[in-house]
Specification:
about 25% strand; about 30% helix; single chain; 4-stranded parallel beta sheet
Length: about 450
Amino acid sequence: MSIDNAIGRPHIVIVGAGFGGLHVTRRLKRAPVRVTVVDRGTSHLFQPLLYQCATGLLSEGAISSPIRHLLRRQRNADVVLGEAVDVDSDARTLTVDRIDGSTTAITYDHLVIAAGMRTAYHGRDDIAPNAPGMKTLDDALAIRRKIIAAFEMAESLPDAGQRLPWLTFAVAGGGPTGVELAGQIRDLATIALQREFRTIDPAEARVLLLHGGDRVLPSFTPSLSKRAQKTLDKLGVETHLGVHVTDVTADEVETTNKSTHEVIRYPAKTTLWTTGVEAVPFAGVLARALDIEQDHGGRIPVEADLSVRGHPNIWVVGDMSSRDQLPGVAEVAMQGGRHVGGVIADLCEGATERAPFRYHDLGNAAYIARRHAVVESGPLHLSGYVGWLAWGVIHIAFLAGIRNRLGTVVNWGTTLLTDSRRERAITYGDPETARQPYR
Ligand SMILES: Cc1cc2nc3c(=O)[nH]c(=O)nc-3n(C[C@H](O)[C@H](O)[C@H](O)COP(=O)(O)OP(=O)(O)OC[C@H]3O[C@@H](n4cnc5c(N)ncnc54)[C@H](O)[C@@H]3O)c2cc1C
């Protein structure tokens, strides 16, 4: 089966409805084109709040929005649920595996790839089953299952020695995601779970933040890293700097000191992995099809206008594109998406010039704990309560859809007032994996 561009308007095919893909699509709303958005999932995911879903603060619905719903008023856009698996740049077709098992060849005039990244284990894929990363909704729900089940397991054990590994949570990586996760687990243990257990004191939960660098949040200025570290210390997170996580089993995590090479093993049933990302496999497919070399993270190098060299009608935006060492953050993807959408609209209306992409850095923000966040925007450096308020406003502004924004504000408010976290359901749909959290 093939979807062709018989209706006369240029056909723009977009792979991925994350921040990049969605912003290309929206920018093309009034352009004389037909748009097809291909995604392997049904929802646009707000990854910056995944850790709040993983720790029972927000529901999966609050941080995701159905792609079809988001595009319901964009008459020139259609959505295809399926996985992009191949590209033929001569025939101008994208091959997509669809949900019913069929394969579709979609003909394009312009192809935009915005398929993002996935968790990287730096050649240690063997530890992946014991150290889940956090890139998808499935990851967040699996982590939630692990964390909640660990407290339940500890409650069921009579001996303090046996409980210790269940109540030890190791987080590999001291970037924003690692810091946010570590802080949230301590918040969960010391505030939300208080008075809910009869045998254990959840506040005894040990949270280890294991980081290879010499300070947490290395993408922030040193003074904000310092303030974040102070808050983590106060919260009871144990930070270990200058160490690499060198092994993770179902029962322990091993670190090796980068300078002394000292090896330490901590009994821990829960290890979470936030130390790196690499391009999703489709980037490799694209690189081979277009005969281009990926960068060290598997990203696709792009020209100044974000098109691929030698392929002026193929574009890569967001985390998967490599240009000027731009960071893998939502703002780069959104601005890149709007840029590419604008250039394609102009080209389809007869323009011959292509403007280069210019990124405007709006800054960085990371949540540390309740009433503590750090925000950095140009000369403006905020931390503590003011940083936390600014962080909240920024995240609400960027969530997709009014309903998610209102729901999240209500949820945060209720959590602050009542100290509770209600999104803690864990499910066991698949009998094969039903016991997985207990391993
Ligand atoms: C835990 C976490 C916290 C973060 N926090 C922040 C933050 O605080 N601030 C910030 O600015 N950024 C943050 N980021 C980074 C930000 O989320 C990314 O930079 C942004 O999502 C990149 O957008 P994208 O469109 O390139 O890719 P994504 O948003 O990852 O979207 C990629 C889309 O492509 C789809 N896809 C992938 N492969 C295929 C295929 N073969 N076929 C079809 N569809 C496919 C996926 O389903 C997905 O919908 C965070 C990321 C994570 C994981």
